[in-house]
Amino acid sequence: MTNDVLIVGRDSDVFGEHLGQQFSGLRFRCAHNSADALALAPPCAILVIRTDEIFAGLIAAMPRLRLIQALTTGVDHIMALPNLPPDVMIAAARGFHGPQMSELAFLFMLAFARKFPTVLENQKRKIWDRREQRLLVGKTVVVVGVGRIAEELAQRCKVFGMTVVGVSARATAPGFDAMYPRAQIAKAASLADFLILLAPYTKENHHLVNAATIDAMKPEGILINIARGGVLDEEALRRALLAGRIAGAGLDVFQTEPLPPESPLWDTSNVIITSHVGGVSETYAEQVMPLLIDNLRAFVDGAPEKMSYIVKRVSSE
Asked: Catalytic one among 17, 121, 257, 286?
């Protein structure tokens, strides 16, 4: 194995500088775009990259590739590459996204509860509109997919005086008042003032939240997707919104990203769209760095069993 590591991304220099201080025996090559990545790729055995920045041509340019360390929680784009060698190990970056994901969920909840888009429009039009305000206290949050991020979100919801219900195979989780199995997702959705999706995208979770689930929601219910686009049936959601079946949706992730300009979701009433920013933060490099250091050290020391969040590891034998 060579000692060359390719880091791809707008902030690749930051990662290269920090990692270089920890690994004197590795050579870090930093690429800011796909063209730079292709030029630097051939000698590299390790690739550090966000899942949405990877592409088949980059894999083809790395005949010595042995490890892909994602800088993101999801690795679905990586796993879907048609030319991914079977002996390449894949590790995700997880366990630290709770603060930013929770804050985005609250941004959506408060924006809809306080009708903030209307507040901004009234400001532009110089309209004084002093009306009763909807509160989060006493409302019910139903979280589909209960992992570490959901637990952190639940703790914050409890501070706001909210009831927290989960949809998961788990029987209990910290901060949750009740738990429903996946087979009863529609029943759980019927309780939701806010239905928040946090389930990972897998084949089994494709359109996990479908028309039946959405139709079970309250008319005043809000759906928030900060998981993956494929977890939600977007067309079923749009039909429900157009029919006034639910009150609104906050969407950070989509089946096709970037969301195409021609997507009807842009112009659908009562939808707030963000650009897949749920997992990122101004301190992201600091958050992910301990994981990167530990995983790289274990890998170069020949102890991959000590690595965290291995998604795929297939023997080359």
From this structure: 257
**Helix H or strand E segment including 127:** none
Catalytic residue among 29, 50, 156, 276: 276
In CATH terms, is domain 4-95+282-312 a member of 3.40.50.720?
yes
Give me the catalytic one of 29, 94, 228, 234: 228
SS3 59: helix
**Catalytic: 257?**
yes
pLDDT one-digit tens code per residue, 157-204:
999 999 999 999 999 999 999 999 999 999 999 999 999 999 999 899
| 30-to-7, 27, 92, 270 alpha-carbon distances in Å | 5, 10, 20, 41
Whether 276 is catalytic: yes
258: preceding bond cis by omega (within 30 degrees): yes
98-273: what fold?
Rossmann fold (3.40.50)
Contact between 278 and 106 under an 8 Å Cβ cutoff? The reply is no
Query: Are the C-beta atoms of 71 and 91 separated by less than 8 Å?
Result: no
Q: What is the pLDDT of residues 202-229, one digit of tens each?
A: 899 999 999 999 999 999 999 999 999 9
